[in-house]
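Why does residue order matter? Because the sequence determines the fold. Keep that principle in mind as you read this record.
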Amino acid sequence: MAHNSQKGFSDSSVHVDVKDYYGKRLQKTSDLKTGACVAPAHPPPTFVREALKKVHSEVTAKYYGCGLVVPECLEGCRILDLGCGSGRDCYMLSLLVGEKGHVTGIDMTEAQLEVARKHTDYHMKEFSYKKPNVSFVQGYIEALTEAGLEKNAFDIIISNCVVNLSPDKKQVLAEAYSVLKDGGELYFSDIYSNGRLTEEIKNHKVLWGECLGGALWWKDLLQLAEEVGFSQPRLVTASIPTVDDKELQDILGDFKFVSATYRLFKVPKGNNRTCQVMYNGGITGAEDVFHFDCQYTFKTNQVVEVDGEAACILTHSRFAEDFTFQPPGGSCKPCDKSKADIVDPFELALRLTSKGLSPATGGCCSAKSADCCK
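Structure:
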């Protein structure tokens, strides 16, 4: 794969500003002016924390991400990280997918990629891999195929507080759909607003760099995903980010923001039937309980009736072997409930807060705690 930026896609003013913000202005996490892009206080699972400990200190120090985006069932998968930055998550994931899997990171900021690339040999030695299972590409998340990434090549795409930095969200989703395999998943965290933002907010360089100025109205995500071809977005978790800067608060006015993790799948549409399923257990980190989204939590050997879209996802995705379908006494039925209920991420965040719960595998950003993964 080529390391250079693709020829057919050029920087917009937004891309130039974002490169400047993340390549020059930010030198460490504490330089951020809001809590939109800072890690959540809830610690990640033990196996993820252990993997992070093996990541080189310079890679971690130069990482400006917001939390972690770690889906389940990763062994042997081909993963693409959109906006990989210095490569922290790529290296962590390269250990979790194993030597037979592969992780590709793409970023438009060369300064970040230089840090990522120079530590490849270090990590492969640390993981006792005979050959690298990670690579880095300079390019744009709106033009993945132009960057040299093959269509229908990836099992999973992750992204953490990056899609909001793009001026063309629909194109990002379309490119992600293109390079995913059938049954593949886009599992990503991002910042969303409670309405369409004003031009003043969208044109504010600091707010855009802080992941707020480019935030999508959460209802627009549902529409864009459908237009591109994805399944209905499944909301996993949500939390409310902090904005402590008074000047920025005044500009934002009454707009509210939420950090939300969604999973979108590239699966067939139509003829979805509600179905009874039983989780077989055994997924790493979810051996007994698998938290699929905010509506379904599967316990090992427990029969659960799911809506038609969830049944289609579980049947056609990498999770198919982890479930038993139509267990004794159960059957798939006509579309009593073909689609999942649409959950407002702001309402979910408030509900989780009122229960004293924190997102376990969400990214982006619920509290100013840069040390949560140490």
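The chain is about 30% helix and 20% strand.
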